[in-house]
Request: fold
Amino acid sequence: MLSVSYLPVFVRQLKKLEQSLQEEVLEKIELFKNSKNHNILKVHKLRGALKGRYSFSVNYRYRIVFVYIDKKKTSVALLAFGDHNVYSPAKNF
Reply:
């Protein structure tokens, strides 16, 4: 089971969402905690300016960007939430 922490910017983004989307995000995070669900969530490494970070799908439109905190990949920090613009090189997380 993964340990998940949240950057303050992620929490702010989450609070701005409508209630139904917030609930969907929280459901996907719960699924994400079990690595057996990673294929379902399309967990993948990012490249380019976001090298060293990973992403998973909330739904067809929205993604969550995260980073592993430890080498054993048992702890993650959720960095950002958004549509494909979340992958923009201008993001500083």
